[in-house]
Design brief:
The structure is a single chain. The protein has a domain at 67-222. It is 77% helix and 0% strand. It has eleven helices and no strands. The longest helix is centred in the last third of the chain and has 25 residues, at 198-222. The chain is globular and about 45 Å long. It starts with a helix and ends with a helix.
Length: 223
């Protein structure tokens, strides 16, 4: 009888965790809608999202394996990942005229979302350090997936970006970018689970975010 009771309690705890994980997985969609579509404030959007992630990471901190998180075992893979991440911003720079919404005035749009010139640099630093760490710890460390191909977590990670991209680029390119992000999410999960390279996962995410938003800043100055 004690064993049965213990098993039931364990199952209940797992079910409760799964429910809360589903709720936390919706946080980027809630944050994006509330921050960008209601308040028109990118900072509010990001802070809502990060608050949810931080709460999840604190509650389930014992479920996170930090082993090798600051180590890079495969130096060639590290170099390749860094180069590809840096190319993200280069693609944004050269594809801007092809992908952007015809009516987009980048500087005005950023200002509308409370990203004025004096806040862009601090936002860039925060967005390329705190953001990738919190997001990767949650997506790839706290939500382990054994899916062989694409998982629900991969899709959820990528799809909320569509809500942001559609504000800046044409719908068909927003869809293409979202599909690319699903593939990126699957690759990062492979790096984390199969290759045991969590450090590369976080670093490549950070560099990609830095490269992309730096390109956005430069484009806003250029325009």
């Amino acid at each position: 009888m004690p064993t049965i009771i213990h098993t039931d309690e364990h199952n209940t705890q797992n079910n409760n965790k799964n429910v809360w994980m589903r709720i936390f997985s919706l946080s980027p969609y809630i944050a994006t809608y509330v921050g960008l579509y209601i308040f028109h404030n990118a900072i509010i959007s990001l802070l809502i999202y990060h608050t949810w992630l931080a709460i999840a990471l604190i509650i389930y901190r014992k479920n996170i394996d930090y082993t090798n998180i600051t180590q890079w075992k495969n130096k060639k893979l590290l170099l390749l990942s860094v180069i590809i991440a840096l190319l993200s911003g280069v693609i944004v720079w050269f594809a801007r005229d092809l992908m952007k919404n015809p009516d987009l005035i980048l500087t005005s749009t950023l200002t509308d979302f409370h990203l004025s010139k004096n806040i862009l640099l601090p936002f860039l630093l925060y967005f390329s350090t705190v953001h990738p760490i919190l997001e990767e710890l949650y997506r790839r460390f706290l939500l382990p997936s054994t899916a062989k191909y694409i998982s629900a977590s991969d899709i959820l990670f990528a799809w909320y970006h569509f809500e942001v991209l559609i504000l800046f680029i044409q719908p068909e390119y927003a869809i293409v970018c979202t599909i690319a992000l699903i593939i990126v999410a699957r690759i990062r999960r492979f790096f984390k689970n199969q290759l045991q390279e969590p450090g590369i996962v976080i670093l490549s995410h950070a560099i990609a975010d830095f490269s992309i938003f730096l390109a956005v800043i430069l484009l806003s100055i250029k325009s």
